[in-house]
Each structure stands twice: as structure tokens, then as C-alpha cells.
Amino acid sequence: MDMNEKEKIEAQPAGEVKSELPDTKEGRLVKDLLERAPYAEGSVRRERRVEFKVPPERIHEFLELASEKFEMLMQISTVDWIKEGEFELVYQLWSVSESVHAFVRTRVPRENAKLPTVMDIWPVAETYEREAHEFFGIIFEGNPRLGPFILEPREYEKHPLRKDFNTLGHVKALYGEDFDRYDESKTNYVI
Amino acid sequence: MANVEVPRELKAEAKQHDMYLHPIDKDTYELFFGPQHMATENFSIILKMDGNRIEKAIVNPGFLHRGFEKLAEHRPYFTNIALILRICVPESDVPENIYSMAVDEIVGWEVPDRAIWIRNVVLEMARVAGWMFWIMGFGNEIGLYTAGQWAAAYRERFMRLYEELTGGRVYHIYTVPGGVRRDIPGDRWLRQLRDTVEYIKGKLKDFDEILFDNYITFERTEGVGVMDKRFALKHAVTGPNLRAVGVPYDVRKDDPYYLYDQLDFEVPVLKEGDSLARTLVRRYELEQDLYILEQLLDMGPPSGPYMVQDARLKALPRFKPPKGDAYAHVESTKGDFGAYIVSDGSHKPYRAHFRGPSQSHGVTVLEELLKGARIADVPVILKTLDNCPPDIDR
Amino acid sequence: MSERRDVNENDGVIHYELQEFQVFEPLFRWARKKSLWIVAFCTGCGGIEIPPLATARYDYERFGIMPNPSPRMGDLFLITGYVTPKTLKRIIVTYEMMQDPKYILTHGSCPINGGVYWDSYNVVKQLDKYIPIDVSIAGCMPRVEAVMDGIMEIMRKIESGEADGWRRYRENYDYYRKNQDELFGEGWREKEAKRWLAWI
Predict the structure, then answer these.
(1) Does B43 share its domain with B104?
(2) Contact B249 A167 (CB under 8 A)
(3) CB B185 within 8 A of CB B164
(4) In a shared domain, residues B96 and B222
(5) Which helix (H) or strand (E) holds A51?
(6) CA-to-CA separations, A162 to A135, B253, C32, in angstroms, rounded
(7) How buried is C79 (Cβ within 10 angstroms: 0-12 exposed, 13-18 middle, 19+ buried)?
(8) pLDDT above 50 (res C4)
(9) Across the interface, do C49 and B169 touch by the CB < 8 Å criterion?
């Protein structure tokens, strides 16, 4: 319920923002894209940086539209918002023709996070998705190579970049007595 | 390999023990290329070979994974500088700078002019030193060791300058959010830098004669590892590799940071897309970078502070930027190097994510380009793509 | 293997076919010290300081050091930086492929106690538990001069016979094997290393 209310509140200012889009190349780019994809929210953050918010069900559709203008997928950044119980995926797109960087944000629940793969749009997404899967456990449906990639199977199973993975605890359990840099009796560690 | 007859008993035994290295059927076998190989730099490729031709390549990175992104979440903002610069070993200034740029944007700091000038000079020095390192590697890969020896020796001149400026040879820990850590040592340092630039400019002709205009280089690189424009864009190839297929994308031109919009330089573009084009683009860029350094030295460092004046910097370990996120990227010798930093208002970054250029051209692209290549081409393709495994692993 | 170990348990030199050859032991030590071949497996970030060391400004060839691709011919194994478990498997296999006598020199703080990666989930903290180390150079990143000093130190140790890591590894193989198996899980050699090198 809370979530729905929030969305409603956010949706109204987004409509205002649409009309407030500046008359620059960024503004026109966002406007064009939003006209064809009314389910998304878009804004101009600053010169050469634009931002979109897309519901996860339509992310593939939106990225396919966006790929006409944004030729390159630079990275898929995942942020683990553990308090809200959500993963935020930021598709970092770059438009070579327009010189604009776009953040395409989408949020999926942390439990059984699933998203469609965008390998068919940008083949390089395979690598990024393998990485996001390895470190966060998000499943990208349609990517055939998900599995241990950079990590060894033991660490892979724990998805170490999730916020609930305790790196100190893992190190202590694994290396035990070698681990001489941390003193539990001390309380004034800045770190 | 074609004429080797493996006795039947041996074959059966090999199959029993799950051995792959022996030719099993016909001439196909599995070859583990790296990490114990000079060309790969801690990187492994599993090659399915058919005689001398590669049928399939599977990249196996991860030998350098240290979990930077996790560690960065556990350290305060300014401490992180000493950590994340280890992502890109040959050009450690690049991660420092993108991290600092992103944090600057989150905090909203206007970095002083002097700091920006110093940062720009340091980045360009990193690029020239990076090209020297690349020439060394490339010369050694194709057997022209003299060029490698020269380049390594010239790189030492930059290392010496770095040492005087920052105190470190390889890891500088110099650029911090809000400015730089120390001022320029003095006019002598600037004179030395100018001398070094002049010196290397004079040596370009030698490099041309021995490496870039050399019959051996042409024979080894021409027509090897060809990619086209569409393929490169779809695979997000950046940097010199993208410019070698005819796309004039350079972060310094298209998303100018620091002083690059005031500098006059060209972006060299070639169309062929093979290893030779990638090699030559790098040669032209080296020239442009020296030219940029000269222009910067002509400008001279602006006067003023080298660190932003902010009361929050007094309590450094507990320095807290506001909530927000930012993406910053610079042009390194390997390509577009980016950082995405998320702040939740605490004294540690909530998330720090890095985009190494090799992530795109070191995995899927490499696998595609290696298909059908000969075993002797593997180091050439690896080196002309300028694959840097720590970028992939982080 | 075990028989051989019994024969030269006390003499501290490699097994020679003729016992009289021990007379020449000082000569052999001097020769070993003066022709160290490096296994070209530069792990970690310290590998970046090897090219300057190998080329004109510092030039380690004047000490008789030469990089060599094959571990079979190597004498000196440089572990130039942090070691991740994935690399450690390859390091152990490569180290075991080298011929005796063999020496290990580590660069930087990371192989000693983890260095800056002290709380990283993927960096081995105390390398000496898994393979024997002869000389460690502290600091990050050790300067080329420090590396040269480390090389001089290992040469001194070879001549005086203190560099006995290879013998320690043989004698305490069970200890090292136990630690390796604890970190990687039992049977990692059969499961993984056999795939890289069929003869293991």
C-alpha cells in the first residue's frame, strides 16, 4: 500500500517535470523518448546527463527503444537498497551521436530478483549481467552463461556484494588465526 | 599436430582419466592459455584448438579479484583513494580521478583552477606513460624487443617526475575529492616535465622506424582480429579500439572534463578495424598527448589554492557528503573508464561501481576476435586490444 | 619420492648420484646464485615494476637474472603482490612443477598479512602457510631498489644455504597440503588442476 501511494505522489511531479524539460538537446532527447514510452519517467539532470525511471516489466521494451539513440551500454550498476528490500539496477547508456549519458533506473524486489536479459540488444550485456548475477544473485532470463565467472564457487554462492554479506565474518571464518589486523576489544575504529 | 598418431591404448587411458590435453579425436584439443604466460598478465583463456586454429575461446578472468567495491563500502571517502587506485595498475591516476570527480559532483564542490590544472597534467602524464608501457608490451609480443627496452626507459622519466610530485612511483594517492594532496614542487619540476615532453617528441621518429613503420609489425598485425563498426558499438568497445573502426568517440571531446574544452587536439580515426589500425591509432594519440601536455605547460598553472576550502574537511574521517549519486568517466589509454558512486549521506560510500574498459573489449569481444585466429595471433590480439585484466576483475 | 627423502634427510643438499660431488657444493651454490631464472608468472600488481627492473634503468640481467616462460627451467618464483585463492591454486601447481632447488621472493605487504586487502573476502592473508617463502619485501608498492635489495638478500641466502624453502616444502609437505586443502577443499587437485595439466 505504502509503495503504491508513494508512486502516485511521485507520478504527479513527474508529469510537471515533463513540461519543464529544458529546450536543449538533452531535453529534446528525453521528450522524444517519453512520447514513445509514456510508462517511463524522465528528467534532465545536468548537461549531458539524463535520467529515466522504468518499471522492471517494461525495461527490455524501453531499452530497445532507447538503443536507437543510445548506441552503447557502458555498464549495469546494481545497488542493494537493503532497507527497502530492493535492488536498483542502473543501466548506464551512452549516446555517441548526441554525446549524452543516460541512467535508466529500475527496481526489483531483493527476493528472487529476475529481469529479462538485454543481450539481444547489446551483446556486451552478457558480461555485465554475468557480473551482476555473480555479485548480487540477480537472474537475467535468457542469458546462457550465468554462473561462477570471476569468483570461485564458494564465494559465488554467497553473492559477496550484497549488503547482508559480512566480509569480515567471512574472512575470519576462512583465515582464522592469520587474521591479525582486527581487534574486537577496540571500539574506536573509524572503519 | 596433424600427423601425430596417438596410440589407441593411450587414447583410452586418457579418456578414462578425463585428460584433455592429448589430441582426443582428430586434431582438436583444449589449451589453457595463461595465467602463467607473459602476454596475458594474470588472465586465462581456454582455447579449443583445431590444429593451429582456434575454434572457440572462453575467457576465464578473476585472478585479480579483490572485491574493491565491497571494500570501498567499508572505508571512509578519503581513505578509499588509497584503495581504489589499485584497480588500474599501469594508470593508477585514472581511478583516482574518476572517483574524485564523482564525489566532487555529489558534494557540489567547485574544484579550484590550480587543482584542475594539476589533475589534468597528471592525467595526461599517465596517458603518455601508459602509451610507453603499451609500446613496451606490444614490442615484446611481436619480438621487437629494442622498442620495448626504449619505451620502458622513457617511461622511467615520467616515473621520476611522478615521484617528485606525489611521492610514489606507481601508486600516487594524489588526487583526492576537492583537489589534490600536494602542490607542484616548483618551477624546476615544470621545466623537467617540459624537457621530458621534448625528449619523447624527439624519440617518436625512432619509434616509427623501429616499430610503427616496420615490416614485421605490418606482417604480424595486418588483417588480424578485424572488427567492424556495428560490432564495436554493440559491444561497447571504447578508446583507441573504437577509433580504429571509424567512430570518433573520445570522452575528452564528447564529454569534456577539466580543461579539455579549452585545449586544441585531434582525435585520430582509422577505418580498417584490424590490429594494425589499432596500433597506428595509438601511435597518433601518443603524439596528440604530447601536444596536449605542451599546451598545458604553455598555459601554466593558475595561482590559487590546490584544495577546496571547506570547513567539513577539518574532520576528515567523518566527512559526510549529501545523498546522491554521480557517474564520472575519463579517457584512459585503454578506453572509457567510468565510476558510479552512490552516497546515502553517511561517511562511507553506499556503493562504488567501476566500469573498466576491458570489461567490454576483454571478454565478449576477445572471444569473438579469437575465433579462427592462429595461436601466434593471440598475444597480438590481446595486446592491440590493450586488455587490462584488473579492470575486469576489480 | 619418500625413499629419496630418507637418503638425504640430513645432508641438506640435493641428491647427487655420486656422494663425492658434495665437495663441489660451494661451487654449485655460487653458480645457482649467479644464474637465477625467473618464472614469468607475475601475479598481482607488483608485476608492473618488473619491466623497469628488466630494462635499461635498473637492468637485473647483470645479476644473471632472466625471465623464462617455462617453470621447468625456473629457479626463482616472484610473487609480486596479493594472491587470490584462484591464483594460489595456479601458483602451487606452478611451484610444484619447478625443479629443486627453487626459491620464492614475495613483493609487498599483501602476501605477508593481507596489506590493504586485510578484510577482503578474496585475498589470501598469510601466504607462508601455503607455500614456503624465502624472502619477503614489505611495503606497497616496493620500489625497484627494494626489489633489487631483496634479490641480493636471496642471493646471499643461497650462498649461505639459508634459502631452504624447497626443502621445507618437501619435509613439511603434509602441513602445507593440509593448509591448502583447508582453503580450497579436499580434492581440488583431482577436480580442477588435472584439467589444466593432465599429468598431475
Answers:
(1) no
(2) no
(3) yes
(4) yes
(5) strand A49-53
(6) 7, 36, 50
(7) buried
(8) no
(9) yes
Tell how strand C103-107 and strand C76-79 pair up: parallel
Same domain, B14 and B82: no
pLDDT per residue over A87-122, tens digit each? 899 999 998 888 888 999 998 988 888 888 888 888
Instruction: Region of B312 please: left (phi>0), alpha (psi -120 to 50) or beta.
Output: alpha
Q: Do C120 and B71 touch (CB under 8 A)?
A: yes
Angle at B49 between CA B4 and CA B37, to 5 degrees: 105
Q: Number of structural domains, chain B?
A: 2
Taking residue C116's Cβ as centre, other Cβ atoms within 10 Å add up to 20
Helices H, strands E: what count in chain A?
Answer: 6, 7
Q: Do B138 and B266 lie in a common domain?
A: yes
**Grid coordinates belonging to B51:** 590444429
B248, B142: one domain: yes
One-letter amino acid for residue C78 of the chain: L
Domain boundaries, chain A: 20-179
With an 8 Å Cβ cutoff, the interface of chain C facing chain B consists of 39-45, 47-49, 51-52, 54-57, 67, 69, 71, 82, 84, 86-87, 90, 94, 116-117, 119-123, 140-141, 143-144, 194-198
Q: In angstroms, rounded to a whole number, what is the distance separating the alpha carbons of residues A187 and A102?
A: 43
Q: Residues B21, B48: one domain?
A: yes
CB-CB under 8 Å, B74 with C45: no
Q: Which phi and psi angles does A135 have, rounded to 5°?
A: -90, -20
Question: Cβ–Cβ contacts within 10 Å for residue A169, how many?
Answer: 10
For C56, which of B70, B153, B170 is closest by C-beta distance? B153
Q: Which domain holds residue B31?
A: 8-60
Q: What is the pLDDT of residues B301-348, one digit of tens each?
A: 888 888 888 877 777 777 888 888 899 999 999 888 999 999 988 888
In a domain, B365, yes or no: no
Check CB contact under 8 Å for B42 and C47: yes
Query: What letter does residue B243 receive in the DSSP assignment?
Result: H
Nearest of C150, C156, C158 to residue C29 by alpha carbon: C158
B77/B56 same-domain check: no
Question: What is the share, in percent, of chain A residues with pLDDT greater than 90?
Answer: 1
Q: Looking at the domain that runs over A20-179, which CATH code has it been given? A: 3.30.460.80
- Would residue B145 count as lying in a domain? yes
pTM: 0.85
Residues C108, A33: Cα–Cα separation, whole Å? 52
CA distance B22 to C182: 31
Q: Do C86 and B74 touch (CB under 8 A)?
A: no
The residue of B351, B369, B385, B387 whose CB has the most chain A CBs within 10 angstroms, and thus the best one to mutate to test that interface, is B351
Backbone phi, psi, residue C6, to 5°: -65, -40
Residues B50 and B78 in one domain: no
Q: Which of A48, A124, A151 sits opposite B65 (nearest CB)?
A: A151
CA dist B114 and B93 (Å) reads 17
Cα distances (angstroms) measured from residue A11 to each of A7, A8, A40: 6, 5, 10
CATH of the domain at B95: 1.10.645.10
Residue B156 forms part of a structural domain: yes
Q: What rounded mean pLDDT belongs to chain C?
A: 81
B213 belongs to a structural domain: yes
Tens digit of pLDDT for each residue in B5-15?
556 666 666 66
